[in-house]
Amino acid sequence: MKQSQLQKIRYTYEPKLPPAIRGDIASIALSLGEPTQAIRDQEALKKTFAHTYGKPIATMESGGTNPQAGARRTVGVILSGGQAPGGHNVISGLFDALKKANPENRLLGFLGGPSGLVEDQKIEITAEYMDDFRNTGGFDIIGSGRTKIETPEQFAATRKTCKTNKIDALVVIGGDDSNTNAALLAEYFVAQGDPVQVIGVPKTIDGDLKNEYIEASFGFDTAVKTYSELIGNIQRDANSAKKYWHFVKLMGRSASHIALECALQTRPTACIISEEVAEKQQTLQEIVSSLAETVAKRAEGGENFGVVLIPEGLIEFIPEMGRLIAEVNDLLAIHGTEFSGIAGPDEQARWLSGKLSSESAPVFTSLPRDIQHQLLMDRDPHGNVQVSRIETEKLLIQMVGEELKERARTGSYQGKFNALNHFFGYEGRCAFPSNFDADYTYSLGYSAFLLIANGLTGYLSSVRNIAKPASQWVAGGIPLTMMMNMEQRHGEKKPVIKKALVELEGAPFIYFARHREEWASRTSFVYPGAIQYYGPDEICNQPTITLRLEQGLEA
């Protein structure tokens, strides 16, 4: 495979580690705190995790002793869910710590995600193989997948795979669902009397796997910087041509962290935050009218251009649209056979409008034909509407355009509205990791092995104080059960790691809210440019604005 010059040079980059874990692995010990509690539903979770609930927070310290550090081990690693920049460095950090502890240790990579573990599809990761992936983006070292290990047969198959390969520990690299699965695996092995340890690593570009102790999920930093570069390029074009409105949809179905961070980095004309829409119970028409007002006011100053950022999951946060989507999901689950026998999207739409409630039917029929069809597309694996395929940005363009035509007819708008749409998603999932993500992920992988070497299971690898330089980072582990609550899934209550939404009282949103009117009325675009890997700290090693604001630093 031909390698780019950047790839060759990035191979030589040496990721930074927190100071407590830089020395001899046998001298790195853990300081354990008090027993912990889940964020909610404690009694139910105690029953589900009878053997692993309530463990203490672990902090790594140098200058201790760990006589078991050098024991010979075989560790398995899994990449689970969507790609995120830095996944390869998690594995390289894990690999290096494993080999530093004992050169005879083995690392097995299970292929294609959790299904590789169930089906015992694997490769051994060697030094030569590992070196081809250091500091690069993607998950192609072993591939990923979205299989959930949830049936008794799958758990039994996993146990068999571990016994066959004499696996001592598993490292699951994934998001909230994947790490919920890791917690269940940890509980399963302890309940079975098996010595297999399970450690998770927090991954998702969406930024919604975080809390007081997991300050960021890896990949978020690189993804938002990649998107912000693209948004900045579009803003520069808009400011040059001065005749286009760009509506940009960004990844983030369950939370608006990506949209908010990109807004903080680029200062667009407008940015919609889904959580605020839900909090204020804003209707679709209210959102449209607000955008139309911004367009009209800028037109008064001769500025018939702008950039609007839209979270991928916005449509579900709009009250009437959320109710409509929930009804559609229920109706198609109940009448799936009848629905599948109807030929053509227009006939399907007519059938559905006749089944919807009196509240949701007019909402559905008021939508553009293309959006109606997108609501009826193939379902996701859970039987639900695939929200990511609904072109919310096109819906808003069309509805804003219609309102502006009405304003023009009454004489309250005299500008020009030429709109273009974009969706930035996959562009950010496999980028070369920023220096921050390269360091952070390597540290997470290294720490994951240290948790194993100290005998822990059911933990999420943690590196804290990450808004500061790596010389001030603190490595440790957080009990997975600490982050859980019980949620309704497929008709029954199940344990789930709670997603972190944008906090409207949090420093990042407050900063955005304080400045957005200025950005809307006066062109204030910032052009971040491409991610830099070499040069001064202020352009190469800065964390996100979100992280800096959350930790009390200047934006």
UniProtKB/TrEMBL annotation:
Main location: cytoplasm
The protein, known as: Pyrophosphate--fructose 6-phosphate 1-phosphotransferase
Class of enzymatic activity (EC top level): transferase
Sites where the protein binds substrate: T204, I205, D206, K243, Y244, M251, G252, R253, E312, Y426, E427, G428, R429
Subunit structure: Homodimer.
Marked site: Important for catalytic activity: K203
Alphabetical list of SUPFAM superfamilies matching this protein: Phosphofructokinase (SSF53784)
Residues annotated for diphosphate binding in this entry: G82
Taxonomic superkingdom: Bacteria
Catalytically driven reaction(s): beta-D-fructose 6-phosphate + diphosphate = beta-D-fructose 1,6-bisphosphate + phosphate + H(+)
Pathway given in the UniProt record: Carbohydrate degradation; glycolysis; D-glyceraldehyde 3-phosphate and glycerone phosphate from D-glucose: step 3/4
Family membership: Belongs to the phosphofructokinase type A (PFKA) family. PPi-dependent PFK group II subfamily. Clade 'Long' sub-subfamily.
Regulation (activators, inhibitors): Non-allosteric.
EC number: 2.7.1.90
GO MF terms, alphabetically ordered: 6-phosphofructokinase activity; ATP binding; diphosphate-fructose-6-phosphate 1-phosphotransferase activity; metal ion binding
Keywords: Cytoplasm, Glycolysis, Kinase, Magnesium, Metal-binding, Transferase
Species annotation: Alkalispirochaeta sphaeroplastigenens
